[in-house]
Specification:
This protein is of the alpha/beta class. It has 13 helices and twelve strands. It is globular and about 60 Å long.
Length: 368
C-alpha cells in the first residue's frame, strides 16, 4: 500500500459497527466481556505518573503475553506502585469502544479491529506500540469430505466473524484460488459461514460445517474432534510470520503517561522473553489464567499443539498488517485506508535497545 491514501472508513461495516462481536481478533474464551481484576501492590512501591493503568485483552492463547504477564506479576513488578487493572474482552469492537471511552488505556488486540478503530476515528484515538504474537491460525477440515485444498471448493467453511482477521485471510486465499465468493453474504464457490469460535467445534461435530479457518485454540479443538489441519496460515507469509496480536494505547494516555506506557511495554518484552525461555511453565501459567477467566482449563490434547503454533515476539510485523489491510480492500470489506501514524514504536525501540535487542520497523506507517 502506498504511503499516502485518502482517509476513509470501513464501508461494509459502518452500518453494523455497534455490534459487539463484529471484528473479534480471535474470539475464543470467557463469556464475560469485562472480568475486572486488580493486582496487589507492595505498600512501599513507588508510583509512576498515574495511580493505575487499565489494560484489556482476550482470554485466549494468542493473547498469552498479557495472560502470563498478569498471572506471573511481570507487569506489576515494572509498574511499581502504579496498580494494573485488567479487563477481558471477547471481541475487538468492545475493546476499541472501551479504549475510546477511557475505560481502558492499553489493549492487546488483533490487526483488523486495530485498523478499523484507527480509521473510524480518523487516526485520532490509538497507536500500535508493539507486537505480541504471530501465527496460530489454521484451516482445519473434515478429512472424510476434504482430501486436498482443491476440495475446499463447494464446501462450508467457518470463519469467526464477517470482516475479522481470519475472515479476511480466508477470503483472500479463496480469491487466490480463482474462486468467487460474495464477501458480505459468504455465498459463492465456497460457503463462508461466520460462526463464533466458541460454537465452531459443535458446528463441526454436527456436520453443519465442513471445516474452519480459525485461530488457536479453536483449531486444535477441531483436530481433537477428528479434524485435519489442511493449511497453516503461516505457510502463506514470508518467514512464516504475520501479526495476530499487537498492543494498542490511547493516544491521550500515551501523551499524559509515557512512563506508565513504557513500564507496561517493558513488562510485555520481559513476559515474551520469559515465555520463550520457559515454554512449559508459560503454557501452564497461561492455562491457569484461562481457567480463572472461563472456569475451565484447556486439556493437553488442545493446548499442547495450539501453543506450539504461536510465536510470541515484540516485533509488530508492520508490513504484514499493511498487507492484511490490502487483503480487506481486495475482498471489498475495506475502503482504502490511511494508516499513516498508526504506529508509535519509539518507546518499544528504546526498551529493546537498552536490552541489547534489535529494534523493530514500522513499515513507513509510524508517527512522523
Amino acid at each position: 500500500m502506498s504511503a499516502a491514501r485518502p482517509l476513509t472508513t470501513l464501508r461494509t461495516l459502518a452500518a453494523i459497527a455497534a455490534l459487539p462481536l463484529l471484528l473479534t481478533a480471535c474470539g475464543y474464551g470467557s463469556d464475560s466481556a469485562d472480568d475486572d481484576k486488580q493486582a496487589q501492590v507492595a505498600a512501599d512501591a513507588k508510583k509512576l505518573s498515574a495511580d493505575e493503568v487499565r489494560i484489556g485483552y482476550f482470554p485466549n492463547l494468542t493473547h498469552a503475553t498479557a495472560l502470563v504477564g498478569v498471572e506471573e506479576g511481570i507487569f506489576q513488578k515494572e509498574l511499581g506502585g502504579t496498580t494494573i487493572k485488567a479487563s477481558t474482552f471477547n471481541a475487538g469492537p468492545s475493546e476499541i469502544e472501551a479504549l475510546n471511552a477511557g475505560s481502558i488505556d492499553i489493549g492487546w488486540i488483533g490487526p483488523s479491529p486495530a485498523i478499523n478503530g484507527y480509521t473510524k476515528a480518523d487516526g485520532s484515538n490509538l497507536r500500535i506500540i508493539s507486537g505480541s504474537a504471530s501465527g496460530g491460525v489454521k484451516l482445519v477440515v473434515n478429512p472424510d469430505k476434504i482430501k486436498s485444498l482443491k476440495d475446499v471448493k463447494g464446501k462450508k467453511i467457518a470463519t469467526p466473524q464477517l470482516g475479522n482477521t481470519q475472515d479476511v485471510a480466508f477470503l483472500n486465499w479463496i480469491a487466490e484460488q480463482g474462486w468467487k465468493v460474495e464477501a458480505q453474504s459468504g455465498k459463492g464457490d465456497v460457503s463462508v459461514v461466520r460462526t463464533d469460535n466458541k460454537v465452531t467445534p459443535d458446528a463441526y461435530k454436527s456436520g453443519s460445517i465442513d471445516g474452519a479457518w480459525v485461530p488457536e485454540p479453536t483449531a486444535s479443538k477441531l483436530v481433537a474432534e477428528g479434524g485435519k489441519v489442511l493449511l497453516d496460515e503461516g505457510d502463506l507469509w514470508p518467514d512464516k510470520k504475520f501479526v495476530i496480536t499487537n498492543i494498542i494505547v490511547s493516544q491521550t494516555f500515551l501523551k499524559e503517561h509515557p512512563d506508565v506506557v513504557e513500564a507496561v511495554l517493558r513488562g510485555s518484552v520481559k513476559a515474551n522473553e520469559w515465555i520463550n525461555a520457559n515454554p512449559d511453565k508459560a503454557k501452564a501459567a497461561a492455562n491457569e489464567a484461562l481457567k480463572k477467566e472461563s472456569g475451565k482449563a484447556l486439556p493437553a490434547e488442545v493446548i499442547d499443539p495450539a501453543w506450539k503454533s504461536i510465536s510470541f515476539l515484540d516485533d509488530p510485523l508492520a508490513a504484514t498488517l499493511d498487507t492484511q489491510a490490502e487483503h480487506a480492500v481486495k475482498a471489498g470489506l475495506l475502503e482504502q485506508p490511511d494508516l499513516n501514524g498508526i504506529y508509535d514504536l519509539a518507546l518499544l525501540n528504546k526498551i529493546l535497545k537498552a536490552e541489547g535487542k534489535d529494534e523493530v520497523d514500522d513499515a513507513g506507517l509510524g508517527v512522523k
